[in-house]
Amino acid sequence: MGLTPFKIIPDFLLRLLKEVGQIADQKGLTVFVVGGFVRDLLLGVSNLDLDLVVEGDGIAFARVLAKAMHGKVRIHEEFGTATVIASGERKMDIASARKERYVHPGALPKVTGASIKEDLFRRDFSFNAMAIKLNPSDFGELLDVVGGERDLQQGVVRVLHDLSFIDDPTRSFRAIRFEQRYHFRMESQTEKLLKQAIRSGEIGNLSMDRISAELTLILAEANPFPPIKRMSNLHMLPLIHPALKLSNKSVAALEEIPEVLLQFQEMFQQGEVEPWLVYAAGMLSTLKPDDAKNTLQKIKWSGKEKEKLRFLMLEWEETLQGLSRSMAMNPSEVVESLGPISFEGILFLYASTHN
Fold first, then answer.
1. How far apart are CA 327 and CA 321, in angstroms?
2. Taking a C-beta distance cutoff of 8 angstroms, is the pair 50, 37 a contact?
C-alpha cells in the first residue's frame, strides 16, 4: 500500500473520484479505480478513462451511482458491467471484482465473483494490475499485489502467469503496443512466453474480430510504425494474412508517414483524413492485389474504411510508376490517374516516394 500522486490530475476529476468513494461508503461497498488510469497516473501521463471495480454487485452500484449523480446508466448484462455517464458527460465503466477461467485458448473467459486481489491477479500485465481505493477512510491508497509499480519504474512489460498469452492471445498485441508506446522492454520470461505462444500456433486461434480490434488499436497509436515493425520481427503479421510481411520499400514508407501527415495538417488544417488508415495502407502494401482483397474482406473494419483501402486491390504500383516516369502529365491527367485512390491512399503513395 502507498499513497497516490492525485495532485497531478484535474480538480474536477478528483472531486468525482471522492464522490464515488463516498457513495460506495454509504452503501457499505468498497470501490477502486483500476487499470490504465492507475498506470498512467503513476507515469505522469494524462488518462481520463475511468474503470471502477466494486467488491460486490457492480451493476447495482452503477444504478445507485447514476441516480446519486443525476446521470445516466447503460447496463451490459452479458458482460456483467455498466457504464455511468455523470454530469459533464464524464463516463465511468463499472464492474464487479471477478476471476476468470478460460475453457480453451482464445475463448472468452467464464467469469465468477471475486475479491479485488483476485481480480488484479487475473489481469494482463503487472502495471495494469494496480488499484487505487476510493473510500474516504483510505482514499488514494495504492493496492499493488504483483509489483506493477516496480515494473513501471524499471520500464518492463511483464505478464502475470505462464499461460497468459495462451489463455488470451490478444495480450500478445497489447504487450507490443504498451512496450512501444512507453519505450519499455518486455521482461525476458514474458518475451520467451510470447515467442512460444506464436510458435505453438495458439495465437492463430483468435477470431478475425478480435485480431481486427487489436490491430486497430495499434494503428491508432501516435506512431504505429514501431509496433508494426515489432510485430513483423516476432512473425505476427501472418496472423493477418499468411503472405503479409514488411519489405524495405514498405518500411521506408512507414517511416515517412509521420512527416507526410504533418505536412498535410499544416497545408489543410481542416482536412478529413484518418491517419491510422494511412499506416494500414503502408502495412498491407506488400500484399498482391488478390491477397489484399482477401484480407480486406476478412478484416472487421467498416465498409467506409475498407473502401479507402480499395486501391490496394488494384495495380496501384503501376500507377505510381507511371506518374514517376511521366513528368509531362498535366494536372487533369494526374487527377484522373489518382481517381480510384482515397486521400489516405494518396498520402501513402506520397510517403512511398518521399524519401
1. 11
2. yes
pLDDT of 1: 45
pLDDT band at 297 (very low <50, low <70, confident <90, very high): very high
Q: What CA–CA distance (Å, rounded) separates 62 from 59?
A: 5
The three grid cell numbers given for residue 23, joined into one nine-digit string:
457513495
pTM of this structure: 0.87
Rounded mean pLDDT of 224-237? 96
For 121-177, what is each residue's pLDDT tens digit?
A: 999 999 999 999 999 999 999 999 999 999 999 999 999 999 999 989 999 999 999
Contacts of 93 (CB under 8 A, 6+ apart): 49, 50, 51, 52, 81, 82, 83
Residue 330 in grid coordinates = 498535366
C-alpha cell at 318: 503501376
C-alpha cell at 235: 512473425
> Which amino acid is located at 28 in the chain?
G
β-strand partners of 53: 32, 95
Relative orientation angle of helices 58-68 and 11-26, to the nearest 10 degrees: 120
Place of cell 475479491: 115
